[in-house]
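Homework-ish question, so no full write-ups if that breaks the rules, but can someone show me the predicted structure for this set?
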Amino acid sequence: MARIPAPERRAALVQAALRVVSQRGIAHATTRAIVAEAGMSLASFHYAFDSRDELIDELITTVVAREQEAVLPDDLQGHDIRDMLEAGLLRYFEHLRADPEHEQAMLELTQYALRSPERHPLAVAQYARYTELGARSLSAAAELAGVVWSTPVEQVARVLIAFTDGLTLTWLVTRDDDVAQAVAHAAADALSRMAEPR
Amino acid sequence: MARIPAPERRAALVQAALRVVSQRGIAHATTRAIVAEAGMSLASFHYAFDSRDELIDELITTVVAREQEAVLPDDLQGHDIRDMLEAGLLRYFEHLRADPEHEQAMLELTQYALRSPERHPLAVAQYARYTELGARSLSAAAELAGVVWSTPVEQVARVLIAFTDGLTLTWLVTRDDDVAQAVAHAAADALSRMAEPR
DNA sequence: ACTGAAGTGGGACGATCGTCCCAGTCGCAT
DNA sequence: ATGCGACTGGGACGATCGTCCCACTTCAGT
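A: Not a homework solution, just the prediction itself:
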């Protein structure tokens, strides 16, 4: 086996863990499954990490920090704020359809974090991050559409996150594209009503 | 230990399993944890059930079948369809606040079922049941409000389920009552727009 | 009262988990 | 080249998992 410095090994293990969680669920993300995916030995695992819990914590932190602005991207298109919101939500839906396992993994990691008091802050941080990204996109959209949010934009963002969560969960179970599009349409409708002309 | 016929023991074990999953998560719902909660011995478990998987399957089936019409109850109140929908969603939210662990358990069971091909149908059935309950309530609400759904009521119900899912997930993480109420308000807004005067 | 089936208790099995140990090997600074 | 610290491989530990076995007790039907 090639000799790899510990910091790089940590990153490689986190990546391998994400693949395992995505493909088989967090319950199957054992230390042995992770090192097998990474092509290492168990000793390398505990040389890079003190414990499996430490790896999971870093996995959550890393994956949250890496989260991009999938919802409501830069090239906002549409006639008015409602169209722009719907286009953004549909684009998120495409992202979900392209890699369902990743979103399912995120969902499982959230639930996992929710179950232990010391990990709960990680889940809260995850949603804070989502809110931040959502608020940024919502601000940009309002700017382009020439409207202002009548509610604080962070509040609007939290509602947006709730809607995308619901869309994600429902589609992961039913795989019903029509319903997902209907949800996107209805959500854009409701959100656009929280804005008013500038 | 009192002698209990196997069918009753099955029911008692399912109840105990639900309590364990609610309080500690499905990962901690081991056979030993379940029989301890039920006050039985391990032998009684495998006398009533062939395997732990069989118990979990019956738990999901039971808990889904027992699910009541928490969303949009009988005593629908409000001036118009929008008010009625918001009142119903807020009532669901009260139900969520009263027993968060139960909804968290439902969420975990869904995710668990989603992870194995042979259990996937259980998750789909769970959502079919939700849709059925939602459609019934939506029909009743439309009747009282003197409107008709311009989209098939099952479709509206599926959107409603997505919204309640999102509300649930977000609130379970953030415990932010204000956001939950904003979500309920926005969701009622969007849903009411899928109805038209009769 | 007797008998067979139904239900119970406790201990044990093999598998797998997270973690650890330690002898060995590689690479870099000197 | 050489020594030392960084890294690796394999095997092992105790704990816990799901499941099983078997001797035992209780109850219902006769």
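Now go work out the reasoning yourself. Hint: Residues 120-145 of chain B form the longest helix (26 residues).
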